[in-house]
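Before relying on records like the one below, remember that each one covers exactly one chain. Contacts with other chains, cofactors or solvent are not represented anywhere in the record.
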Amino acid sequence: MMVAKNIPSVCLSCGGCVGVCPQDAISLKDMKIVIDKEKCNNCGACVRFCPVGAMKLDEERGD
């Protein structure tokens, strides 16, 4: 299953992805992006919006 992921080393913590997520699955806490995998429907809006390419859709792996 694909899930939205954030690349912290690239992320500017601008919060733009928070605003464009139609599922309200992304939040900014302590200047870090947090993605609620239960709410995310993998639409890719955050990936298309991110000005620095810090968001991506990737295969979910069991950690």
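The first helix runs from residue 16 to 20.
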